[in-house]
Write a structure and sequence with these properties.
The chain is mainly alpha-helical. It has one domain: Cobalamin adenosyltransferase-like (Hypothetical Protein Ta1238, Chain: A, Up-down Bundle), CATH 1.20.1200.10. It is built from five helices and four strands; from the N terminus they run E-E-H-H-H-E-H-H-E. The strands form two sheets. Strands 1-2 form a two-stranded antiparallel sheet. Strand 1 and strand 2 form a beta hairpin.
Amino acid sequence: MVTLSKIYTRGGDSGQTSLGDGSRRDKHDLRVEAYGTVDEANATIGLVRQHTTGPVDDLLSRVQNDLFDLGADLCTPEGEGRRQGALRIQASQVKALEDAIDAYNEPLETLKSFILPGGTPAAAYCHLARTVTRRAERLVVALAGVEAVNAEAVKYLNRLSDLLFVLGRHENDGGKADILWVPGANR
């Protein structure tokens, strides 16, 4: 468990931060950018949750906890400095997202156009969270191109963005209030 008795340490004043293995990296390092963007995705899901209740809110609460696990995963590189038992996203967490996507997508009508982000506040924030999650995914994929990254981390972000899309439709009256893109409508 983490104990935070002091919030500022001055350790980052030089533009570097500590990773989970104790090594130091520049704050603009790709690994730091990746887990920092996962943190942004988590914060945007906090905005979604201001407009959700019941099972959707419970699901998003679990997702927020998973995103902290994902941040810890990305913060602790593979290698000799990695401590035993370091958190890693598991296939079961990805599967839980897939199950939720299937459950929430099943009652929705098939889409016949792309959706414009909007509708209810919950749906609009789902779309915002989805786009931030996609950015996090792109950064983690870029990181995986230069350093070892848990493959389940990439899968988790990919499924999460899909879940947020489906939840956005769910929160738009089961898709009935979706705002559809009309190609070339304003020509």
